[in-house]
TrEMBL record:
It comes from the Eukaryota. It comes from Brassica napus (Rape). The chain crosses the membrane at residues 239-264. This is BnaCnng36890D protein. Keywords: Membrane, Metal-binding, Repeat, Transmembrane, Transmembrane helix, Zinc. The keyword Nucleotide-binding does not apply. InterPro entries: C1-like_sf, DC1, PKC_DAG/PE, Vacuole_Formation_Reg. The lineage of its organism: Eukaryota, Viridiplantae, Streptophyta, Embryophyta, Tracheophyta. GO terms for molecular function: metal ion binding.
């Protein structure tokens, strides 16, 4: 908070999107706004610890860095590769940066029983080149390695299964894919994020989900017509009834008001 206060003139308020973590498009939360720049910081982000230990960079402490409104932020979060916001954690010795969201996530250091390999895998906390044993793609950071076989894996690849039966797409089992087919739009059908190295796909329906959505199926809504058959018939009825009730209420109000104004007019 002290470092943030040195750069920004903050007052306590509520706001939408946070310039500390780049999140919060659709909900209001407590935080601080800068009088001069108008930037907003969640309370949780503004009061982040000054320094943290992170399992992806265990050799040095990472210190919080706050960038002023006039400076551009360069570089990416080394964990999620996202654009860095105005606040992040940084090691100046190694030029290593991670955003506040990734700093808060619990890091899986060991995968004891991976679905795709018979030995335990351990996180290699280094930015090194490796080729993933499952998807065959070459990557440049943080593999999970088997010390016995000398093989490397992406975390998602190590934990994946060749097929997945998925509650949001019960018609067909989804297949694990590591290359996006050209006939798809390359996006997760549920959360619309770009599909990365590994995802699950139904070629009959051209339905794809990323690993996040595969692990945590989102609540079903009308946006996902391919997700479920029953939801589609239920929701519109409920909305329709609500709209009908609303319309009747408005008609009653109009009638009451016109009756009142008419009687006033008569008096
Ligand atoms: Zn935030
Ligand atoms: Zn990140
Ligand atoms: Zn370092
Ligand atoms: Zn992989
Ligand atoms: Zn092994
Ligand atoms: Zn998704
Ligand atoms: Zn299908």
């Amino acid at each position: 908070m002290e470092i943030l206060k040195k750069i920004y003139s903050l007052y306590s308020t509520r706001g939408h999107k946070c310039d500390g973590c780049n999140l919060g498009e659709d909900c209001y939360s407590d935080g601080y706004r800068c009088i001069r720049s108008g930037l907003f910081f969640h309370k949780e982000c503004a009061t982040s610890n000054q320094d943290v230990c992170n399992a992806y960079h265990p050799q040095h402490m990472l210190k919080i860095k706050v960038v002023s409104n006039f400076e551009d932020v360069h570089g990416e979060c080394k964990i999620c590769r996202g654009k860095l916001p105005k606040m992040y954690y940084y090691c100046s010795i190694c030029d290593f940066a991670i955003d506040l969201i990734c700093a808060r996530k619990e890091v899986v250091k060991n995968i004891d029983f991976p679905n795709t390999h018979k030995h335990r895998l351990s996180l290699v906390p280094k930015m090194i080149m490796f080729s993933c044993h499952i998807c065959q793609l070459v990557d440049d950071r943080f593999p999970y390695a088997c010390d016995i076989c000398g093989l490397n894996f992406h975390k998602d690849c190590a934990e994946s299964t060749p097929e997945l039966s998925y509650s949001c797409h019960p018609k067909h089992p989804l297949k694990r894919l590591t290359r996006v087919p050209s006939y798809t739009n390359g996006k997760c059908c549920l959360c619309k994020s770009k599909l990365h190295i590994l995802f699950y796909h139904c070629s009959i329906c051209n339905f794809s989900v990323d690993v996040e959505c595969a692990k945590n199926p989102p609540p079903l809504t009308l946006d996902h017509p391919k997700a479920h058959e029953h939801q589609l018939t239920l929701l519109p009825q409920r909305i329709f009834v609500l709209m009908l009730v609303e319309w009747i209420m408005i008609q009653i109000l109009i009638y009451v008001f016109s009756a009142i104004s008419w009687s006033i007019g008569v008096v």
